[in-house]
Amino acid sequence: MKRKPAHSSLGGKVALVTGGSRGIGLAIARALHGEGCKVIITARDEPTLKRAARQVGRPEAIPLVCDVRDPQLVQKMLAGLEERFGRLDILVNNAGVAHANLDVAKLPVESWNEVIATNLTGMFLVTRAALPLMNPGGAIVNNLSISATRVFPGSSAYSAAKHGALGFTNTLREELRERGIRVIALFPGATDTEIWKTFWPDAPRPKMMPATTVAQAVVCALTLPAESTVEELRILPRAGVL
Questions:
Q1: Looking at the annotation, which residues are catalytic?
Q2: Residue 182, strand partner residues
Q3: How far apart are CA 88 and CA 15, in angstroms?
Q4: Domains (ranges, CATH) in the chain?
Q5: Cα–Cα distance between 24 and 30 in angstroms, integer?
Q6: Measured between alpha carbons, how far is 79 from 198 in angstroms, rounded to an integer?
Q7: Tens digit of pLDDT for each residue in 35-89?
Q8: Helix (H) / strand (E) containing 197
Q9: In terms of Cα–Cα distance, which of 59, 63, 54, 58 is closest to 19?
Q10: How many CA atoms lie within 13 A of 120 on its CB side?
């Protein structure tokens, strides 16, 4: 992606993207980098994260290994970010995992706990640690997926986490209005990423959107004038909900 001119409204802003080593997170990181942001990406797997940082562009994104489920690691990550930059302008809560398509009666509690801890509690932990670094004009984008408003049989933990994350996002938005920090709920429909290997291995991925489409929409929302905001950003492939 070519870098935009220096006069981009996002130029020079500090952006943190969790789960930024692949899929929608990596696409958003690349798009923000193209707008001139200083981009930090996080993930659990260090080799994958370092490769992703190089893919973002030059200068490459800053890779920070972090498990968003761990409060101490999250605090350490944000402390390092504060020491280097002194602030955070854009937070993209994108880290998430899926589970195999199983009815409630067959879903292992370990799978339930991992999905809830990553997709819901992790969003809370990162946001809570990031808020002291954010100023008026900042923005938080929470990637909720269309599963935050719909339910799909066999996806109980994923649906529960995303529905809970929507409630968290709506509450956060009201709490931060007076601080001038925008909170955007991102609802991407079927997007061609690796998560489908867990959900639905035979999913018709050619009918899905590329992750770059979602990233483009996020950038458009973030570049609105300061006196306005997109509260909910819903993007679907032409094929609709698959």
A1: 158
A2: 139
A3: 6
A4: 14-235 (3.40.50.720)
A5: 10
A6: 33
A7: 999 999 999 999 999 999 999 988 889 999 999 999 999 999 999 999 999 999 9
A8: helix 196-199
A9: 63
A10: 19
Within 13 Å of residue 1, how many CA atoms lie on the same side as its CB?
24
pLDDT for 77 = 95
Strand order in the sheet with 139-143: 62-65, 38-43, 14-17, 90-93, 139-143, 182-188, 232-235
CB 195 within 8 A of CB 187: no
Please state, as a whole number, how many other Cβ atoms lie within 10 Å of the Cβ of residue 61: 27
Alpha-carbon distance of 133 to 89, in angstroms, equals 8
> From residue 225, how far is each of 74, 141, 221 by CA, in Å?
31, 16, 9
Task: Quote the pTM value.
Answer: 0.92
pLDDT of 172-186, one tens digit each? 999 999 999 999 999
Token pair in block for residue 106? 């067959």
